[in-house]
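Work Package 4 report. The design task specified in the project plan requires that, given a folded chain encoded as structure tokens, an amino acid be chosen for each position. We show below one input record used in the internal validation round.
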């Protein structure tokens, strides 16, 4: 069984072909980058998707050496994400599905990060840390669905690091530069904000920005920022593991590139006798392979139904708990 899949939730327009063994037959990615320092401008990202979508599709099919007729069904990221990006993807993909009479499956983008992570690392039932630009969530599968045990209340960890980076004149994304600067820093006190199982980074970013205006060195601030935010994540993940009785931890997302975060989590897991794994960076950021693999897992031998394809709509605020596994 093979699916042609599309990722279109934010800045990446991806097209892939994946089969039910988990083989990746093609993986094409176009990334909207925008102007330096501005982040994603939603209508620009959507316009970019419209420019590249035809080319992305033909490239993915060519790379897979398949024709659309060889494909069993189409998968698309239905949400959560930016409405304009989601529409630019879905409107196009509906046309492709209708023209070729293929079933169309809408999948949850966040769950697809988790499931591809499991496939690639051979994890069975971990606690997940999803630490991307926009999202920071501690998730585990309990009682027939993925549940969020803790999350950031305002800004995601990656975006928080990028925001501080902009304030002190670093390039985008700022995570890697902050990691470098931190190597030569020492600790200055910052607020440590864990509320129950949730974490909050925005006050910390305000504080480090103020300290930087007072002349504290970038190195010290980067070091302290990392130590504080990563300790918060480690604390909450450990509590989630204890609560769920799980013996594996899986780190996913762009922030998973950070060696200091990895080493803190490694120590915590070792002390608990738990396994710790990190999703390879190539598949940590948004991609269409995750959508294809999730499509394969969700597909229930549906047949093409014109009405159903036409009625499929975007789900910009779709939470993982809303997807129930019978
Ligand atoms: P994603 O949304 O999953 O593509 O992740 C992008 C985020 O990862 C950006 O906010 C980056 O700043 C962050 N990031 C990338 N490399 C690092 C790093 N070495 N340390 C911390 N954050 C990083
Ligand atoms: Mg993502």
């Amino acid at each position: 069984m093979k699916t042609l899949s599309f990722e279109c939730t934010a800045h990446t327009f991806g097209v892939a072909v994946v089969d039910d063994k988990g083989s990746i037959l093609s993986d094409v990615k176009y990334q909207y980058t925008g102007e330096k320092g501005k982040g994603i401008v939603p209508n620009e990202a959507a316009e970019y998707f419209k420019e590249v979508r035809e080319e992305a599709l033909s490239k993915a099919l060519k790379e897979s050496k398949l024709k659309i007729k060889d494909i069993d069904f189409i998968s698309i990221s239905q949400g959560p994400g930016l409405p304009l990006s989601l529409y630019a993807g879905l409107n196009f993909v509906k046309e492709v599905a209708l023209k070729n009479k293929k079933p169309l499956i809408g999948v949850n983008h966040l769950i697809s990060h988790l499931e591809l992570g499991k496939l690639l690392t051979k994890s069975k039932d971990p606690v997940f840390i999803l630490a991307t630009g926009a999202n920071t969530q501690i998730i585990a599968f309990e009682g027939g669905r993925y549940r969020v045990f803790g999350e950031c209340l305002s800004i995601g960890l990656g975006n928080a690091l990028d925001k501080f980076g902009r304030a002190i004149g670093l390039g985008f994304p700022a995570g890697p530069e902050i990691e470098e600067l931190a190597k030569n820093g020492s600790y200055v006190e910052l607020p440590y904000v864990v509320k129950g199982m949730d974490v909050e980074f925005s006050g910390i970013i305000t504080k480090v920005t103020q300290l930087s205006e007072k002349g504290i060195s970038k190195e010290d601030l980067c070091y302290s920022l990392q130590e504080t935010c990563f300790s918060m994540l480690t604390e909450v993940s450990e509590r989630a593991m204890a609560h769920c009785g799980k013996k594996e931890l899986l780190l996913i997302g762009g922030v998973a590139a950070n060696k200091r975060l990895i080493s803190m989590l490694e120590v915590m897991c070792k002390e608990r006798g738990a396994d710790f794994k990190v999703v390879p960076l190539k598949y940590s950021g948004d991609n269409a392979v995750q959508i294809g693999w999730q499509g394969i897992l969700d597909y229930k031998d549906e047949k093409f139904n014109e009405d159903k394809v036409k009625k499929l709509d975007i789900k910009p605020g779709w939470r993982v708990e809303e997807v129930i596994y019978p």
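The chain has a mean pLDDT of 96. Validation will be extended to a larger panel in the next phase.
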